[in-house]
Here is the input.
Amino acid sequence: MSILANRHTRILVQGITGIQASFHVKRSIDNGTNVVAGTSPQHLQNEHLGVPVFDNVAAAVKNMPIDASVLFVPARAVKQAVREAVEAEISLIVSIAQGVPVHDMMEIKAMLKGSKTMMIGPNTPGLITPEEARLGIFPENIHHKGCIGIISRASTLTYEGVLETNIAGLGQSTVIGIGDDMIVGTDYRELMDKFMQDDETKALVLIGKADNAYEQLAAEYYAQMPNKKPIVAFVAGETLPFGAIVGYAVDILSRGSYSTQDKKEVMRKSGMIVVDKMCQIHEALAELKLK
Amino acid sequence: MNIHEYQAKQILAQYGINVPAGGIAYTPTEAKRVAQKISARGPWMLKAQIQAGARQSGHFIGNSANPKGGIRQVTQIRNLSYEAAQMLNNILVTEQTGPRGKLVSKVYVEAFKQAKRLFYAGLIIDSSIPAVVLLISDVVDKDMLKIGAISQNKILRLPLVYDKPIADAQIKSILDFLSLDKSYDEGFREFLNKLRVTFINLDAQMIEINPVGIMRNKKLIALDAKISFDDNAMFRHPDILRMQDDSEEEQRYLKAQRYGFHYSELDGNIGCIVNGDGLALETIDVIRSQNYGVACALNVKGGVDKDRIAAGIKIIMTNPRVEGVLINILGGFLRCNLVAEGIIAATQEVGLNVPMVVRLEGTNKDEAKAILSESKLPIIYADNTNDAIDKLIAEMEVND
Here is the structure.
């Protein structure tokens, strides 16, 4: 078991003919990911990387069943690409793009509300179930099948988290980057639910960042969850550079509690095992004696 | 992306929002001329144009004799150029600039407006809802920081519906909050909705009017203005992009931005190149925990070609405060071999006169290592973040 995607998940790639998409989708296919189709607005070819290419998502779903879609479209095209996927009622979409305008994300969140679609990202390496499905750009060579679920809001640190679970000899069930951006499609909470219900996952690693309130929301949620698995958590950003914030509005909004210290405090109180350095994650996992 | 107060006021005026008459000046003489043009008699407001708040309570470096800040009221025209000279080409330090302060290269001269009452208005995106939130407070400027941290009951927060005018009930709650009667309804409705439209149309991330003045005729006026925009949406707003400050201190930031990178400067002497915000934060944290500091950090994100990577490395290596370079890459989208090629291209151009430690992990890391070892550059390799920082610090201490 795993969550959201496995070897049977039928995957569409929106924007499959692009250079980056070609490079990464080929790697995914070579590693056994079940990519079944792609879309390309220019539609210069009917087939690419051995799968059929359609003009748009609607045309693809008319021809074959699709469970998930990976968006390899540029940031400014993400809103339109999400709209297509939502209208086609695709249950899972993963958006890799970096630099989606935040106002576009507000409109996208409105589209997702009440829809049948769950969105991971944007600005994420994606989602990977080792040896089964790679939806995104994860360096697949560092992943090993195992029992730790990883949810991360810091793209690159996700890989550090993976390496930590490897050192602990536990491997990963599914690894999800929820995205580095201010507004993300899905936050920690919904994914925590899914991991708690997954038999294969024995514990979670959560990797957060200093800004925004996502970690506080996750902690409040975890505190009241009935069936808990242990969560080892890390938050990056004790020392934020100056000049990132101008004005007072951010302080007001955060109720003065966005600092990493405040976050860690809330997380500890919720029952999470909070470590101060990334390199302590494997030690914390070892202490759980999951093997 | 941030802009100056005078630019923000130009934008607000375009959206029909009331602002005081004013003009920009680069020299004391020019400041006097602008003042005379605005109005025949004082008082005038003289405002240092830096992209940071808390200017009034700030101070200028090296001028302890005159502890006045970056916002001054001037009554007599004969004092105007003197006061302007106190600010121009001096460094202003405020709670929001950090200890190094910011150089004031221009001042904004404005007609002084006598308001009956002042309040704070802000628009910002609350990511946890997510929605644009209107913030209203009765307390202005100096006390705002404290308000932010402590007295949350002194702030009214109203989440707005993205594409709809501010609701009647919300306008009423604002008036109640400020203890104003119904006769102010029209002025508030008009002002705040125009602010909301500006925010939405221009892809703003924050608009802050601190303070808004309530005039005798019950109209509202923006006495200060800060706007910051979403960098990622600036392709829709070329006119705003042209407002970017090109002063010397901003050059490295702008250059990095042009390549799609994120650059920040701190006060240490290690230059870091990483991919990813989180990794940048973690790297800085570990360096700090070793009692070392970071001079600058460049996040090359998923920068995908070797020339752009080389340009990024050059930005770091040409920062005069950098005494050691740490390259910490965990490549997913970003391929390690391109980073390796970028390192070689950059060092060929600007040389390698300081220790450099490289940690490459992820996509194509083996190719990358082969490329680098072939180049015979004096690069030190590391296996993980902590290892890389230990090795760099050891090397920098040898060089001392």
Observations:
- The mean pLDDT of chain B is 87.
- Chain B has three domains: 21-111, 117-236, 248-399.
- Chain B touches chain A through 76 residues (CB under 8 Å).
- Residues 185-201 of chain B form the longest helix (17 residues).
